[in-house]
């Protein structure tokens, strides 16, 4: 029987979780709301460029935020689920970028991009929220 000491999450780890949630929401807005706006206002598409750099930038910001938050979360609560969800979400975001850049052999890269990126952003946001919610509550070991 081991006694797990509840550690308060550091400000750095909490900030990483918050940054991860914010980036995931930004990704969802980019993936879902912006295309809807383009459908509703076709004139926007003539001067608004949704390049792969946006996808790559979000992924490059999400990677370190998830790493810091998930490592800190593991140290606090020893639960693997947030990290597994985050890894899956990041993988899906990377697949969304690959679909957007047509590196994946898919029938419709635009639909694949939205599907992978949207699902990845939701999983990543969920991982950060679970990690945040677990906070300083260690897993109980029998």
TrEMBL record:
Keywords per UniProt: Membrane, Transmembrane, Transmembrane helix
Chain ranges passing through the membrane: 21-44, 56-74, 81-99, 111-130
Keyword presence, Lipoprotein: no
Organism: Sphingopyxis jiangsuensis
Presence of the UniProt keyword Transcription regulation in the record: no
Protein name (Swiss-Prot/TrEMBL): MerC domain-containing protein
InterPro entries assigned to the protein according to its UniProt record, in alphabetical order: Mercury-R_MerC (IPR004891)
Alphabetized Pfam families for the sequence: MerC
């Amino acid at each position: 029987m081991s006694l797990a000491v509840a550690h308060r999450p550091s400000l750095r780890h909490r900030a990483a979780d918050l940054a991860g949630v914010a980036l995931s929401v930004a990704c969802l807005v980019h993936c879902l709301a912006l295309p809807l706006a383009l459908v509703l206002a076709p004139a926007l598409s003539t001067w608004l460029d949704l390049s792969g750099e946006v996808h790559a930038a979000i992924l490059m910001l999400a990677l370190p935020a998830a790493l810091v938050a998930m490592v800190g979360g593991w140290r606090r609560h020893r639960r693997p689920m947030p990290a597994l969800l985050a890894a899956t979400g990041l993988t899906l975001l990377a697949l969304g970028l690959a679909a957007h850049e047509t590196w994946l052999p898919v029938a419709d890269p635009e639909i694949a991009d939205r599907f992978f990126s949207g699902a990845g952003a939701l999983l990543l946001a969920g991982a950060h929220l679970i990690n945040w919610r677990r906070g300083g509550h260690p897993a109980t070991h029998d």
